[in-house]
Amino acid sequence: MDKVKQFSIFHFNDVYEIEASTVEPVGGAARFVTVCKQFKKEKGDQGLVLFSGDLFSPSTLSVLYKGEQMIEPINACSVDVACVGNHEFDFNLETIQNRFKRCNFPWLCSNIFNIRTSGILADNHAYYIEERAGVRIGIMGLAESDWLNTITEIDMSIVRYEDFVKCAKQLIEVLKKEHGCEMIIALTHMRVPNDKLLAQEVPEIDLILGGHDHIVIDELVNQSLFIKSGTDFKDYSILDIEVGDFSSVPQAQREQLMKEKVYIIKNKYKINLKFHNVTKDIEEDEQIKKHVDFYIAKSRDEMQKVIGYSFEPLDTRFSVLRTEETNFGNFYADVIRKEVQADVTIVNSGTIRSDCIFPEGEVNYALLNKALPFPDIIVVQELTGAHILQALENGVSKWPNFDGRFPLISGIRFTFDGRKPPGERVLKDEVYIGDNLIDLNKKYSAATKQFVSLGKDGYDMFQGRPYILAFENGLPHLQIMISFFKSLETKESLKSNSNLASKFSEIQKVAFNMDDEEELPPVMQPQVIRRRSSIISQNTPSLNNIKVMRSLKRKQSRIEKVDNSGLVSGIKVHDDQAYIVIAPKCDGRIRIIK
């Protein structure tokens, strides 16, 4: 009787933050390295570690260090093979090639080519071959065309893309006939529908191990198993694989096994799949903990400075943000629109990257930088109502998929019917700009990112439209958000600066609680807000019934909740520094018919 061939695969995808979170599963690179090392220790030569892309960006630290902080942790994970993700290309070609070369494993990019060099983009590999338990395994790495439109740091005129189905079929011939591979694995960085399409069109693939969607999923499609293993050093999967002849297993037993996440693939492989979380009870790897602590300390002082407060938890979850409105998405879009004095804001939801709920309380640089790690520039363009309608149709065209084109909007209210085909979903008689029904012929000013203005993520209706605020005069959106929170003077400078009074006459009189707080002089009444950007209009929105409070005896800061109808819900004064308080809501600006 032949000895049973067995080996195991450790799979993960889409990792961004090396620091552990405070909510389970806490994740973090140090604990993740521990579980990787444990896997390698237990499985020995029969363990295979595979990664499905998005490593170097985006994150709070990537803005500062361009992915440098990820190299030591990923090498400590003893990855055998990886495929590239779209965010590998958030940096220029020279930078990312340097990052790839410093990894102790091959990166695959099977279907994206550099026209100038006639090779794979960024000097990566088309395929790689591993052997476990005597089984020769051919591995390819595939990307979808959609995310090429998100690349802005590389000259796309040098890039040639090949359809992933066509490329996979060609590589099957090479891997099976030329290299004698028995098992075929596709590492992918694509959306779920494209993973399923790949399984349908290329049945020779045994395993599709995907990334890009930050979810845990497993499904048998056309006798191919495809999975995604979560995100952000918090999740991973282990596949224990037995090689043999399973043709005699009856269908009823197969169905029962599938309920237990045991899959029989093409009667050759029996795969026991288990998903795991990285929780706080896992011991941190000492060396990687030192590495994480070094980078966090390096950036902590500046990033942890409090610049504001929120009365509400701020929802930036990937799965929610890309399928419906969230309070943080609304707040972001509102700040952008009001700061540049545009009629509307239309920005792709893929802009916000933090994929979490920030608790109510302090707002600091790190929070904003985690939510907005890309150095995107805000521009303002002239669009007709017809263009705006097209933009909204594009924004909801992929719903309910977790697609980054789903819109963040301000100054707009609309309804779409998710049951209708893409391009016909937005109800034209339920699209409002401000309080008025949209006029398809009228010209509106639209704030957006340079990324969208270049026609990325399907927003080609922006491309070529006249600029009101062009790129060279625009501001990074992170800077705009920070400036919003830092738009208050210190209390002492407000008292002494009477020149501000004439600048912001629309701001209403500040209200005070005289029982416990210090009364401020009349000069404070009209000039609470100071704009720091020269491009920002001085026609600022009024702040209704704002209370400025400070306890003189206890030197203890206090916040009092006031009107929630505007961007600012209150003022907190502490140690002579005034802070804006927000309480953003979901207000029904996007209505979905399901």
Automatic annotation (TrEMBL):
Residues in 5'-Nucleotidase C-terminal domain copies: 319-463
Gene Ontology molecular function: any one: hydrolase activity
Record bears the keyword Nucleotide-binding: yes
GO biological process, one term: nucleotide catabolic process
Superkingdom, taxonomy of origin: Eukaryota
Calcineurin-like phosphoesterase domain ranges (all copies): 8-215
Keywords: Hydrolase, Nucleotide-binding, Signal
Keyword set includes Cytoplasm: no
Sequence similarity: Belongs to the 5'-nucleotidase family.
Matches recorded under PANTHER family: 5'-NUCLEOTIDASE, 5'-NUCLEOTIDASE-RELATED
Protein name per Swiss-Prot or TrEMBL: Ser thr protein phosphatase family protein, putative
